[in-house]
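Researcher: Please generate the 3D structure of the following complex. Treat every line as part of one assembly.
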Amino acid sequence: MRRYSAFAIAREAARHHLGWERAWRSPTPKPRYDAVIVGAGGHGLATAYYLGKNHGIRNVAVIEKGWLGGGNTGRNTTIIRSNYLQDPSAAIYEKARSLYETLSQDLNYNVMFSPRGVMMLAQTEHEIRGYQRTAHANALQGVATEFISPRRVKELCPIINIDGPRYPVLGALWQPRGGTARHDAVAWGYARACSDMGMDIIQQTEVTGVRREGGRVVGVDTTKGHIACDKLGIVVAGHSGVMAERAGFRLPIESVALQALVSEPIKPVMDVVVMANTVHGYMSQSDKGEMVIGGGADGFNNYTQRGSFHHVEETVRALIETFPIISRLKMLRWWGGIVDMTGDRSPIISKTPVEGVFVNCGWGTGGFKAIPGSGWAMAELMAKGHSPLADAFSLSRFREGRFIDESVAAGVAH
Amino acid sequence: MLVLTCPYCGVAACETELAPGGEAHLKRFGPGSSDEDFEAYLFLRPNVKGVHFERWRHAMGCGKWFLAARDTATLEVFGTYRAQTSAPPPEIVAAIQAKRPDWSLT
Ligand SMILES: Cc1cc2nc3c(=O)[nH]c(=O)nc-3n(C[C@H](O)[C@H](O)[C@H](O)COP(=O)(O)OP(=O)(O)OC[C@H]3O[C@@H](n4cnc5c(N)ncnc54)[C@H](O)[C@@H]3O)c2cc1C
Ligand SMILES: [Zn+2]
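Model: Done. Output below.
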């Protein structure tokens, strides 16, 4: 693989850009792999990458029914933060956030990680207490956050209306090294690095069945034929229930639509991410100038990648109260993704009842931020059968009542 | 926008008038049941892509719970029925099979 660099840009500029290579190969599947990953979203690709990089397992295929990054990875509002309350969540999300800090260098691909700061507004007395508690927990976990005053909120984000009629801003939980990244680039960067290690990324191919012998996996059926494998990682987000059915077990997951929208581009007006959980609105400004807005999740099972209009209406209504200057902005695009919600709203990285089959799912409305840490943990689990980062997120917690009481995926985009 | 007809008051209610209540016809496992059954009852869901039976409440209307048969892959509604039953009634099954000949109640 030719590395990307300032020198490469100059070289190609001098020869009419004829020397750029394709970022990844489009191979025909081999009959057998050591490990097959289903789903080329961020989590699947990151799993493959760390299998190769950290554990030397490179005879790997990532099989994707559509195009890579075309699922929730390419549909999210790109917020990255790690200011969670419970230790297992803080550990894996902070691992992910810290990997994001150097991901562009690591992958030699600009993922445009922008640690511009994430602010979660406290707009009720309960939220003040809740976020102060989180700030204390984060101090013990080694996650840098602080609880800030309304005045500081206004300094950091001048377009906020802190004296809103219904929900004045009473403070905020501030994570200065949280932020955003370019979602497609995260998928593309991992894909390029995987391909470079000799892994096969097979797009436009659906996994339609899981072959088992004596309780263990021996391969998968796909729309391009049978592929044998020793280990299988199912990393398909909204389609986890469908894939689990094909592998012969059930998951504590239901799939619902979550929506987002972006405005027409405007001049820079905010350089932080603001989340207002009481009124259900999230906003940041993309590098192109669009205001990126996260809406609420629907309450009913849905696979159509289309959500209900009234949720968008609620979100926009709330945001106009918080940011009056956006009231006359036109919205450019509006879309939905199918998110995988678990019983306790925390993710699953786990072995399954079928030996050799592992699942990584349940990231719901908040898994973009987790991609590097999740891939890291899932790769370790698949390679060694155990990963300290993943232990608390096993499937057995539902039977044993060890829930992770976090509302990580709170039913809203974040 | 999803519109479901409340089988009690006959109102064709749009989604904002209703509250979703998850999968229908779950068999309850309580004290004395095995861990497996209890876990499955509480958490494990087929999460079907296709014909799905689910609970709804006419929250802003008569306030009663009813059940609906819907396709989660197309958002098509096959029909709604009263909640005092442990399986979909024959006319709902027939309405589904009229549109999904390959489907059967398992
Ligand atoms: C509107 C919206 C806003 C969001 N905002 C945020 C945010 O601000 N911050 C944040 O951290 N998270 C956010 N999220 C959540 C985040 O997008 C997801 O948690 C994350 O992208 C999941 O990544 P993934 O790799 O698990 O899934 P995906 O990217 O969905 O990838 C799964 C892939 O599996 C493929 N697949 C499925 N079935 C099969 C099969 N049988 N065979 C082959 N391939 C298959 C799919 O085609 C898909 O490409 C948001 C989500 C949405 C929808
Ligand atoms: Zn009614």
